[in-house]
User: Fold these one by one.
Assistant:
Number 1:
Amino acid sequence: MAAAREEILAALAKRTMAPAEHPGSEGPWQSFRDRVAIFRERLEAAAGECVPVADEGRLAEAVAAIARERSASRVLSLVAAVRSIGAASRDPHDVDGVGLAVLEAQLGVAENGAVWITDGGLAPRSVFSLPEHLVVVLRAGAIVDQMHDAYARLSFSERGFGCFLSGPSKTADIEQSLVIGAHGARTLTVLLLGDA
Amino acid sequence: MTHAENARAFVADDVRAHWHDEALWFVRAKRDAAMRTVPEWEILRTRAAEIKAHALSRLGDYLVEFEANATKLGAVVHWARDADEHNRIVLSLLRERGFRRVVKSKSMLTEECGLNPYLERHGIEVVDTDLGERIVQLRREPPSHIVLPAIHLRKEEIGVLFHAELGTAAGESDPKVLTEAARRGLRGKFLEAEAGITGVNFAIAETGGIVVCTNEGNADLGTSLPRLHVACMGIEKVIPRAADLAVFLRLLARSATGQHLTTYTSHFHGPRPGAELHVVLVDDGRSALAARPAFSPSLSCIRCGACLNTCPVFRRSGGHSYETSVAGPIGSILAPARDPERHRSLPLACSLCGSCTDVCPVRIDLHHQLLSWRGVLARKRLLGDGKRRAMQLAAFVLARPRLYERVARFARSAARALPSGLVGRLGGVSKDRRLPEPPRESFREQLARRRARGRG
Ligand code: SF4
């Protein structure tokens, strides 16, 4: 093993590739006059839904309506303002059978309708992919224009998991026809706070 | 078999060949539409090429930096010189823990290494979880496209397969129903898996993290349930900084499928609590390729598949014709680097139209490299005697203007006199070609006539 490492590094050190500078991260990068509108449009293009919610006080009610509509009896919430229904243990397998998970996004990205969510050590990671339906709470003010601005706000100094999620799970592997709900969530609804 | 021979079998099914061509062109059109939403697209492509050129010029340093940072986060990094060493590392990780049930998400590297058959020979159950890969796994054949593994199949064929393997109703071929059946079948596999294997789209030197992109969420399911995550990557996948991801991710999904971003773009920094993360760095010919300046830019490839979708030869010949894990223009550059003898027909499976170079998000000069390969193969005498003699003859004639004029005059009258399909009888790629209507006069003859008239 150590031999492999040394051999590969030696082979790479011998090679004659021309030195090239890193170009840096400065733009000109795209910006939008109405980020919220673009975010909505791109999220919908990715088969997600966007529902405006006036303030935190209305979140529980909005989630309850979605749970009813999706006939989800077990709700696992990582958002303080929304209560879970049916307890879940720390075992990632136990998330199987959760009808609806409620997550909080740190960021939204206008250009692609994605939200950035992290595990934050709060729940097993399977909460991103195993539940039948996902609800993500996002503050309208946390939407950035594009991915450069998104990465400028993220830090990866610690152990952890983070994911840009754009819409529900999907596939087009059979004859290029789009099917929603391949393995992960069948629907993804973003509750947009402060945009009603 | 040569690419042309394999392609003959593919085009024999006319309906399928046309469907394949159109389906891929449709993906290309979606890519164009997505690209047009980004005004700085061309700047992004240049940036991506520059970052990759930089990263490759200091690849050893970045690999060491990645290793140090990944280790700090609690991951274990392994190094493998070739496919065999890679396979042995993965098998021993499983054996040491007594694991036999593995779920795997898409990884062209493990395809290149032949990991599945290797593990199966050693009593491990490996289940491919990407829907397209699951389909081809059940059919016991390799994927035909790096992004769309089952694009060579029609839904009726998948219906027949699922009826036999998953018990769907006979005659059922609705993609929704078939996908749902696969989902149900694979849920159980995910829940009982002991290890999850994934590929890696990007490894970040600065942070020690890896990024995996899927649309289905299968890499996320496959790594969040079992206690062991093994991530397999070619050494060229490392990029310097997290901020570089913005450039690549803005290009990748748009180039691949016309989406603005893959549905799940997951960043793993260290193992999750109570679990293990192992990263296997694989060379398998990459350091040797890095040492060949004419071809080293091909290491910048981010496997988006755009060059396959746009290639007139790929669209009309199907991925299996290439007999490589990566097909299409990029595969035709990578494969001869590993085995020029075996893959010598691939650089000829190209019309030099340059469409691949136009769409490549990291600005690899694909068609130039394909042309360079022809030169290399010709010097190695791997192009076949007929081709070599024809080229020698052409070189002789072209170097002698008077002789050329005489030959050309003869060719023009001969071409008018002979049936246009004659050239097809020469075989090879000329089989489906027809002679164009030749001009009555050459450029030189026209010029001479006009000059004479001007003077008179
Ligand atoms: S060579 Fe370029 S276009 Fe082709 S798959 Fe790689 S990155 Fe995409």
Number 2:
Amino acid sequence: MRALTYLAAALLAAATPAWAGDATRGAALAEARNCAACHGANGISAVPLMPSLAGQQAEFLLVQIIMFREGLRPVPAMMEPARGLTDAEIEDLAAFYAALPSGPAATDPRNEALAARGAELSAARNCATCHRPDYSGQAQVPRINHQREDFLVHTLAEYRDNLRVGMDTQMNGVMHGMTNADIRAIAHYLAHR
Amino acid sequence: MTTKIIPALAGAALLLAPGLALAQGAPPPAWAQGRSPEMANSTLAPHAGRLTVTPPDQLPTAQLRVPEGFQVELWAHGLPGARVMVRGPNGTIFVGTRGIGRVYAVREEGGERRVSTFMQGLQQPSGLAIREGALYISAINRMLRVDNVEQNLSNPQPVDLTAAFNLPEAPHHGWTHIAFGPDGRLYLPRGVPCNICDTDGERYALIASFNPDGTDRRIEARGVRNSVGFDFHSRTGQLWFSNHGRDWAGNDNPSDTLHVNLRRGEHHGFPWCASGWQDPAVSGRLCSEFPPPALILGPHVAPIGTHFYTGTAFPERYRNALFIANRGSWNRERLAGYEVVVVREEEGGRLVQEPFLTGFRDDKNQRFRGRPAGVMTMPDGSLLVSDEQNGAIFRITYRR
């Protein structure tokens, strides 16, 4: 009962986003800017360290592409694709990728011990509070399941080392003090769910 | 890195009661330390900010309410993330932000009000101050100064004062409000890099002041968890600051607070005591050892802009009154804050607060329509209030 109340509160509290994204326009723009070359056909990445975008939270995609455009998430490979995009175009791209079905869980063998350690760490640090119990995310909090394991390792280490700072600083606080081994375990656990 | 996160510290057991529902070994995330078991299954998460333009027809202008005799109107829009506001000597209003990394300039030109992006690509430039025609910008761990700023609006060449100020590196709670005091020094709070932890009290959980060039750092107030707004009393010159209580201790505890710093270096209670509430997660010192807050503002209301009204256009009872913009809660089941309150001194010096600008919070549907963040008096005595969620600025005037 208690948990249910909290859930309802969290779902309702957000300001009504005036969402204007159009997935069809977004698909055309993704085609024109060749997003698939790096992020994969249908938004499922086959390239090492490239994140999948399919089924990602629209609001998260919007925020991140704006941060690329503004030079606040300084990834050289994303400079050109994000250059000059208007807010409306970014909303379209976000709507397009959010509507694609997310990829499957990783298919390589699951290391049970590693996954168990990852699950433990996730529970200790309450990852599922913000990312939701199934890790599918909510609003600006991204989906972190159905994602490439190598990308998760890479980006979690960047948060820890303050190389990636989000729109707020939540993830830097979360990752404070984590070891590389912890990060490998948590990424393995998440990718194999 | 000198910050010590409590549960990671073997020695912390000596200092702290083992009351935290936390796993052994791994330090918990900054925001979750000291989480009560009752909130263990919560999915409350910080609200998403908005980095895109909110068109005027989607602004809550019509729903906003002010006391009898006051009017509220839309003054500027199209400034995603608008927070703190300062005014240059020639009338340019500079507006700082967090997530979108911009500083905006708002100017009146030929009877028209124009918004432009003055600087961008900064990490959470939420602190702005003006002195001798120069704009000081504080971003996370950085301090910049743009000389003759209003003469260089289209081509600012900031002087980087970061090395001189030598601010702590941890990004969390590292966005700051800044302002010059009556003593000509630059005041700069630095919050804790966590929700609740045992930090280096010489670097975090404090308000410091500096010479304008970053030299001669002095700690003005200690034991301040996270102050994002302060001002100096127009008559006494004293530092009045608001402070954010911690998360995950429940819906109604602790409260956010307003403090008056009576002595240089005064300790205000963090991490042991907040709003007169003895934190059960931390033992060692008692609330009775610290000066009580000047006023309890309310749980999780999140005071940002904290500003003495310096105009004369408002009625007598608002002269030198303190306006506080409560940006609003996330770590609470029912919404709290999302309004501007006014704090006045009653006879005998008792402080009272009353709602001033309301209508951002929709209690019935448990939604919010905007988040007030910055407050500033204009030369004509009107009051500007920024709405961070909608990237808009509202103007409040009084007419008999």
